[in-house]
Amino acid sequence: MDSPLRVARAYSDFAVANPSLYDALFLMNTALTFGLEAPLPLRAAFGELEAMFRPFVDAPGLGARTEVAWSSLHGLATLGRGGRPRPELRDRRLALLVAERLAAVGAARAWRPCRHARRR
């Protein structure tokens, strides 16, 4: 499994590198159904995010915690694409987001955000 920070960076990088596709996937109104009734590709993509939390979260809380993490990541990606937050803090913001989400599920000791944030 990829590290949570690697997943967060990949999501953010995708938003920057593919602005039109990102908008179509995440910002435009669609008739797509989400949740358990969603098409298989959407469920599979969400499952990749859930996989980060599955070792630390009981099944009843997994979906909600994953949606909160995804929403936070989406907010950072959307604001970053708009040039609102300071670009030089991008990696630190992602590291903090991952650290806070993992701390919320009791997994903070398994991952050190400061060490990872300095690599980029």
Secondary-structure blueprint of this entry?
Layout: H1 4-17, H2 19-26, H3 40-53, H4 59-81, H5 90-104, H6 113-117
- Structural Rg: 15 Å
Distance between the termini: 20 Å
Low-confidence stretches: 113-120
Indicate the percent of residues in helices: 55-70%
Largest sheet: none
Total E-strand runs:
0
Task: Explain what this protein looks like in three dimensions.
The structure is a single chain. The protein is mainly alpha-helical. The protein has helices at residues 4-17, 19-26, 40-53, 59-81, 90-104, 113-117. The radius of gyration is 15 Å and the shape is flat. The model is unreliable at 113-120 (pLDDT under 50).
Q: Quick recap of the structure?
A:
With 120 residues, the chain is mainly α.
State the main characteristics.
6 helices; 120 residues; flat; mainly alpha; 66% helix; 0% strand
